[in-house]
């Protein structure tokens, strides 16, 4: 799976009835490279459509600018009526970190988007939530106070000056709020009851808001009031969770319907187990659950590890196995099949891309592609593949050792080694393609124009940057392959004796990966103009190679003693 950063964009457009207009806006997103349109949810009463798409950050920003531009062209706010608060044709446009990106980085992208909307499209833009440039504007209600109808008057006040774009009232487009917020997961837990009241009681037990406190502790009792006469609330057990109970006619069961507004605070598996506990206390059983929309891969992998840990089983298994454990443990396939390629964001994006990774090929296909007349994949990608195989063998022995009869008290020790091996082979798999990508960047740099002095300078810099990257990738292969040799060493010495030869083969493959990758480092060394940088890389590379050769000898001695 790619380690590219991914962000989600959830623009809300002030049109929920004219499907032709909505379609023209979403067409702009679907025509954009590097993004995938996930959901379009129009509301007639609100006269508002919530659109969700995801992709790499710069591509998401490009798609957002195109969609917002089309909305400004097609939607006339002076004629807009709807139940939902709003003040612009594109009312809000939040960005959400999904994978391999921090909230702080997402905030910077949100502000970059806000600047582009203000400067390129001439729209009035406010930044809110985590992206707010003015502390008081973190709250969207403050930013949108008085809605569209009050906007003309507010823009005349200095304290209401927008963060980007004109402070003049545009009757057609209004204003837009751009923000950055946490990922929200819509998640329903299924119950073995048809009672909405009981489902609600469990929802109130777990949701952060909780329930109104009563004098006798019963739901129908007299509310407890504070000194100002307001009802006192008893908070539920889960932070960043909103929830209610309802009955689903289609499936004939009641559910606890939750919005997990920050899965870093309350994860999906934590919400599931807490619902299970609270339901059981009320004589109700949880039978499964349902994900509405998509979920980040990390959330599913964390759930798989959580349930494996409860079973005292090794966590260093494949992503596919972790997802399977998560699905079965939370009953995510009770109501309908759970399809990872449709429900997990990273997989949905990968399935939508026509270009496939080398690492996605069959072994036969990879061998044939390598043997073709193309210059890539070459020795660098093969070294990465050998390293991944070596790491996988070390991981296999750790997993087998974790489950060996009579070694139950050592499961966590071997699980830790299996996770280290898995981390190595996951990265080495990615590096198979990164090595080929780095080679292609060099070829692209050599094709740049060089007619003028400025073009020659730019071309030379591009060649140098690409060459350094083509050295850094195999250098990482060396480092990660050496890391996995440590796993092989411990498995050869302490792992399941029946698999000692596998640990030895893993060491041989990893050592070969180190040496092969170092050849790739060296062949590009002569083209680097920064000789001090290159000397340091070659020195460190030689040390890694010597360590790998010595470690291989040590591991094979351990293996041969046991054979």
Briefly characterize the structure.
By secondary structure, the chain is of the alpha+beta class. It is 52% helix and 14% strand.
Give an overview of the whole structure.
The structure is a single chain. The chain contains 17 helices and 13 strands. The two termini are 37 Å apart. Helices cover 52% and strands 14% of the residues. The strands form three sheets. Strands 1, 2, 3, 4, 5, 6 and 7 form a seven-stranded mixed sheet that branches. The chain has a four-stranded antiparallel sheet with strand order 11-12-8-13. The protein has a two-stranded antiparallel ribbon with strand order 9-10. The protein has helices at residues 19-30, 57-74, 103-120, 140-143, 147-154, 196-206, 268-281, 297-310, 319-330, 340-343, 345-352, 363-371, 379-402, 411-446, 453-494, 500-525, 531-562, and strands at 6-9, 12-13, 35-43, 48-55, 90-99, 124-129, 175-180, 185-191, 211-212, 233-234, 241-248, 253-260, 286-292. Strand 11 (241-248) and strand 12 (253-260) form a beta hairpin. The chain is an alpha+beta fold and 563 residues long. It is flat. The protein folds into three domains: 6-180, Formiminotransferase-cyclodeaminase, Chain B, domain 1, CATH 3.30.990.10; 185-350, Formiminotransferase, C-terminal subdomain (Alpha-Beta Plaits, 2-Layer Sandwich), CATH 3.30.70.670; 356-562, Formiminotetrahydrofolate cyclodeaminase monomer, up-and-down helical bundle (Four Helix Bundle (Hemerythrin (Met), subunit A)).
